[in-house]
Amino acid sequence: MSISIIGAGNMAKGLAARFASAGHPVTLASRDKTKADAAAREVGNGVSSAPIAAAAQSADVVFLAVPFDAAGDIIEAVGGFAGKIVVDITNPMKADFSGLSIGHTTSAAEEIQKRAPQAKIVKAFNTIFAQVLQNAGQAAGRPATVFVAGDDEAARAAVAELARGAGFETLETGPLATARYLEPVAALNITLGYGLGHGTDIAPTWQRAA
Q1: Which residues, in sequence order, are CB contacts of 196 under 8 Å at separation 6+?
Q2: What are the backbone angles phi and psi of residue 5, rounded to the nearest 5°?
Q3: Which CATH number belongs to the domain containing residue 160 in this structure?
Q4: 209 in a structural domain
Q5: How many CB atoms lie within 10 A of CB 169?
Q6: CB 128: neighbour CB atoms within 10 A?
Q7: What Rg do the C-alpha atoms of the chain give, in angstroms?
Q8: How does DSSP classify residue 142?
């Protein structure tokens, strides 16, 4: 699958490295093309860069690796991602990281779906720190779990398969509304990692009986 990642920060570069290592063609894009160019050079391994609209158009799967507040502008810039699988990795944190700005009756993923009604929005990778991506998808030496939510079952399964192919454990959590549960899990992970000093070599998982 061809993958485009909108963003040029640590999460975008970490995702690009994981998927490129798994053999996927990967393109990085940013509103600042020079940042995307620099990020692609840093990651290497065949990762390219392109303007946002071109990157979105050419990809089978698009990752939104931007702050939640920027997602609306990206959607508008590309004309809505119609027909595309779009993976939302955002968390709607308050500016001071003291908690989530929305929740209970909606989620960042559901709000993004409203802004892009013809796209197939999938929530995933929002509970994964960039350091885990840099550690080949492992936290404390074990494959991290990627939780995957989405209303389109085929899109959800495709993203889960991408994650497994990149070395992660996966757990499909059902429809997109379950992002209302996944985003608070990410907020807890951020609190543990940064607020309570546990560091970023951590990731939530789900224990299952054999």
Answers
A1: none
A2: -120, 120
A3: 3.40.50.720
A4: no
A5: 16
A6: 27
A7: 16
A8: E
Q: Could you tell me which of 61, 59, 65 has the C-alpha nearest to residue 36?
A: 65
Determine the length of the chain. 210
CA-based nearest residue to 12, from 95, 96, 98, 70: 70
Give dist(CA 86, CA 27) in Å, integer.
14
- Looking at residue 127, its amino acid is T
203 found inside a domain? no
What are the DSSP calls for 151-201, one per residue? SSHHHHHHHHHHHHHTT-EEEEEESGGGHHHHHHHHHHHHIIIIISS--SS
Greatest Cα pair distance in the chain: 48
Q: pLDDT (tens digit, 9 = 90+) per residue, 13-61?
A: 999 999 999 999 999 999 999 999 999 999 999 999 999 999 999 999 9
Whether 113 is in a domain gets the answer yes
